[in-house]
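Hey L., structure's done. Input below.
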Amino acid sequence: MPSEKILEQKKAVVEALAEDMRNAASAVLVKYEGITVDNDTKMRAALRAANVKYAVIKNTLISKACDQTGFEALKPQLEGMNALAISFDDPIAPAKILKEYAEKIETFEIRGGLLEGAVVDAATVNELADIPSKEILVAKLLGSIQSPLYKFAYALQAIVDKENEGSEEAPAETPAE
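Output:
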């Protein structure tokens, strides 16, 4: 039987994990198998750079955190070795980074996740990963707003240029002496 100290430590881990899951913009559960140390190091660096919290966590601890948060629908995915990536800022970042590695490594796969307080399946996480970043979406929006204005300005400039060409071609008449 585990000691009281160990049980308290596990309880604290579950509480912290449950709190992270409640406050997450998104979370992605992955099957953590078959990844090399080199790929794992690169992936963790990319996740850290994107401000994503990532850890390999025992299934029993994730399961208890799911019970506390109401995310029981995630529990059927808890088989084998799993890792959880949690983002508090950017809901797309963990999905994008983990999908990149899931495509490279055959045994490393996305199992499901959380998005805006709801459990989502692997297909939804993959669709989320395909969404362009916020910066790209804002740039596209601004480009689409500016495009008609630029076209209008070019059309006006073409009219002005055409009128100027017409006045330059016709020589001015000089009065007869």
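The mean pLDDT is 86. Residues 134-169 form the longest helix (36 residues).

-- N.
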